[in-house]
Write a structure and sequence with these properties.
- By secondary structure, this protein is an alpha/beta fold.
- The chain folds into two domains: 192 residues, NAD(P)-binding Rossmann-like Domain (Rossmann fold), CATH 3.40.50.720; 32 residues, no CATH class.
- The chain contains seven helices and seven strands; from the N terminus they run βαββαβαβαβαααβ.
- Helix 1 crosses helix 7 and helix 2 packs parallel to helix 3.
């Protein structure tokens, strides 16, 4: 008797004809998510404060800290499609400073982009998803919302807020069949990480040290994150909500003192 074929983990056209918005769609991780969504058949709006030539998705300029900018984007989607299936809140910034060296303006900017922007986009998305009958909101937290890297005080605080907001939204809107999760990456090879490496004296030594501190002996690439986001966006994750999905190559699973 021949064995039945084993189905792939994610079927082709997993997000066929679904409407998705990705904030920070021009960033390293954002572009990877938009590309994956397009490959799975979704209609993807890549929303970012700056246009990136050659990036995947339908490009729209978006300042997540501006209520009017958010309303302009979601008004267009409501007029054009009357529905929304997926929102990925991937826009984010970091400032490498202690609280003593962080100005109030810098603190407010980090909170505005990383937290308030998520509030503004999600508030509009929920209304459209309610009309759709279901939805998936995927926020970007960080392993820095659980444990802290030095010199990232405002960033760590903002990601802790993202984690709490994710749980609250999942509780509030779960009865409407709207799922809310947070993806919490560790080190991922993006322009933000390269900027961090670039500030060091010996870049290659630092990169090797970052690789070695991970149990799997490498840091992530944007496609690693896009794979998880893609799963959370679709029906195979229909029972997943209110969770903080750490994806860091095992970095935060270990006792760091063992690496001394």
């Amino acid at each position: 008797m021949s064995k039945a074929p084993i189905p792939s983990a994610v079927k082709a056209n997993y997000l066929q004809d679904r409407v998705a918005v990705v904030t920070g769609g021009g960033g390293g991780i954002g572009q990877a998510i938009c590309k994956r969504f397009e490959r799975e058949g979704a209609i993807v709006y890549a929303a970012d404060v700056a246009h990136v030539d050659g990036a995947p998705g339908i490009h729209r300029t978006l300042d997540v800290t501006s209520e009017s900018s958010v309303d302009t984007l979601f008004d267009e989607i409501e007029t054009e499609h009357r529905k929304l299936h997926v929102l990925v809140n991937a826009a984010g910034i970091e400032i490498e400073k202690t609280i003593e060296d962080t100005s109030l303006e810098e603190w407010n900017q980090v909170m505005a982009v990383n937290c308030t922007g998520m509030f503004l986009t999600s508030r509009r998305a929920v209304k459209l998803m309610r009309n759709t009958g279901s939805g998936s909101i995927i926020n970007f937290g960080s392993y820095d919302g659980f444990i802290a890297d030095p010199m990232l005080a405002a960033y760590c605080a903002s990601k802790g807020a993202v984690h709490a907001l994710t749980r609250a939204m999942a509780c509030d809107h779960g009865p409407e069949n709207i799922r809310v999760n947070a993806v919490c990456p560790g080190y991922v090879d993006t322009p933000m990480l390269q900027s961090f490496f670039g500030s060091s004296g010996d870049i290659e030594t630092l990169k090797q040290a970052v690789n070695d501190v991970h149990p799997i002996r490498r840091f992530g690439v944007p496609d690693d994150i896009a794979n998880l986001v893609n799963w959370l966006a679709g029906d195979e994750a229909r029972y997943a909500s209110g969770q903080l999905w750490v994806i860091d190559g095992g970095l935060s699973a270990q006792v760091q003192q063992m690496n001394l």
